[in-house]
User: Which sequence fits this backbone?
């Protein structure tokens, strides 16, 4: 196992905020317009489920279908604009050392795990429970959980429609930067799934860093 | 504390189970799917019809279905696409979930024999008849911005139709999940780009959705954002609410895969 200290890139002097998010746990933070959130896949092959809400009016939130429609293609990558359900750009992918992220596969839940992998898996940690707990801090509920982003998650969709969660391609220390175009509540579930390859069948910690925009 | 060896063993067992389910889901299950319904097959017996509605181009409606009832959606002109969202009647926090629908069935392509799932691991509706098999679960419907960009003038669109439909049953912007769009032949090319396969649309295409719980549906008859036709050439669609025949013991929608058998078992528990 690679240690966190060597797996993560050197801490940038400009980072105003740094946290390690333990395996299987949620996190949220208000990202100010212009700030950049870096998510580091500290040990590699770790899916990071994410939702964004407009801080001023959380009924406006990230929309996977609006994002894909505007982009005209199915995967999230460098340059992807994260579009809200009101058609506004909330944030954009401003750097990416991994190259492949998903926004069509949703998050795991106790209920969908039971369908996919058998009823015993209903009683395992799942992203939806993480989201519910984290959203409750912002006055939001299960009703507010929409189709999310899955950073570092590799879900090829082939021309026949075959849709497969396959082994992640992110190496230890790979990162993705998300720069906010408006003040957003950024919510993460460090995915606890152990029944498919999104976390290499072994959930691990991640690191987040927030940087202010460079001074002019 | 679980030992590293036990943890590794569990991981390896989980990977084997995943690979087995994937092989069944993408190799065996598709072979068991029924053929598409023929355009002239399966007329609805007059005695089974509950109600009919014709929705003009660019408009919307809401439809309530009791468990066991079905909705036939007919693209009369072959030029329409119908976007759909929906909620469980008794608890509208339960709603259709496109991500779970495609993940559980190992495919973004839905067709006869497939189902649309709710976010609670239950079956929302089943596609008991389908002449088309060309539906979109990924891109979603039109919006004010997409319609303006496409047609050069502010136009009716699915986003605003869904807002209006939701408002009429006491719901709002927070309650609008990603939608499924019927008669919208979208595929993904090897580079990830969305393609529109116009040849897969025919006049008279229809789909029968059997409600597997009590549902409220919002349907929007607007041009799909990937449809390249300019100006929009959408036509009216016919909706027929009817009593579906009770599922036979070998009903393909209920028995196509181990995942679907479980999803129906969890759904049936709501009613037993």
Assistant:
């Amino acid at each position: 196992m690679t240690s966190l200290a060597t797996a993560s890139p050197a801490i940038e002097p400009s980072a105003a905020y740094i946290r390690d998010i333990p395996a299987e746990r949620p996190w949220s933070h208000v990202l100010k317009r212009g700030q950049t959130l870096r998510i580091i896949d500290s040990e590699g092959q770790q899916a990071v489920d994410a939702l964004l809400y407009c801080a001023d009016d959380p009924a406006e939130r990230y929309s996977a279908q609006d994002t894909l429609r505007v982009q005209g293609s199915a995967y999230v990558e460098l340059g992807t604009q994260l579009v809200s359900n009101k058609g506004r750009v909330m944030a954009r992918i401003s750097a990416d050392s991994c190259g492949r992220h998903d926004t069509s596969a949703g998050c795991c839940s106790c209920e969908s795990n039971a369908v996919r992998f058998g009823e015993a898996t209903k009683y395992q940690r799942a992203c939806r429970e993480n989201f519910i707990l984290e959203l409750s801090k912002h006055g939001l509920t299960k009703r507010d959980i929409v189709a999310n982003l899955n950073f570092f998650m590799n879900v090829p969709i082939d021309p026949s429609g075959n849709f497969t969660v396959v082994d992640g391609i992110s190496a230890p220390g790979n990162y993705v930067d998300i720069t906010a175009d408006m003040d957003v509540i950024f919510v993460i579930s460090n995915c606890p799934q152990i029944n498919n390859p999104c976390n290499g069948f072994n959930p691990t910690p991640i690191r987040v860093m927030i940087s202010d925009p460079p001074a002019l | 504390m679980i030992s590293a060896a036990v943890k590794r063993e569990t991981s390896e067992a989980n990977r084997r189970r995943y690979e087995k389910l994937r092989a069944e889901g993408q190799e065996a299950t598709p072979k068991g799917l029924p053929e598409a319904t023929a355009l002239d097959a399966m007329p609805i017996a007059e005695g089974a019809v509950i109600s009919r509605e014709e929705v003009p181009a660019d408009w919307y409606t809401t439809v309530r279905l009791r468990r066991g009832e079905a909705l036939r959606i007919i693209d009369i002109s072959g030029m329409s696409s119908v976007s759909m969202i929906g909620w469980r009647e008794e608890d509208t926090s339960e709603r259709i979930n496109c991500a779970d629908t495609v993940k559980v069935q190992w495919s973004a392509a839905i067709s006869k024999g497939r189902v649309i799932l709710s976010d609670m691991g239950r079956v929302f509706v089943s596609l008991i008849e389908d002449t088309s098999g060309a539906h979109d679960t990924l891109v979603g419907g039109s919006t004010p911005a997409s319609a303006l960009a496409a047609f050069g003038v502010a136009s009716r669109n699915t986003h605003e139709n869904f807002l209006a439909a939701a408002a009429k049953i006491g719901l709002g912007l927070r309650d609008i999940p990603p939608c499924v769009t019927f008669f919208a032949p979208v595929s993904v090319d090897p580079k990830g780009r969305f393609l529109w396969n116009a040849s897969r649309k025919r006049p008279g295409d229809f789909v029968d959705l059997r409600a597997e719980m009590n549902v409220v549906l919002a349907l929007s008859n607007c041009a799909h954002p990937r449809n390249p036709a300019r100006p929009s050439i959408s036509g009216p669609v016919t909706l027929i609410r009817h009593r579906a025949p009770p599922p036979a013991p070998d009903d393909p929608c209920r028995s196509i895969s181990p995942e679907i058998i479980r999803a129906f078992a969890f759904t049936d528990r709501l009613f037993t």
Summary: Residues 1-10 of chain A have pLDDT under 50 and may be disordered. Residues 63 and 85 of chain A are 5 Å apart (CA to CA).
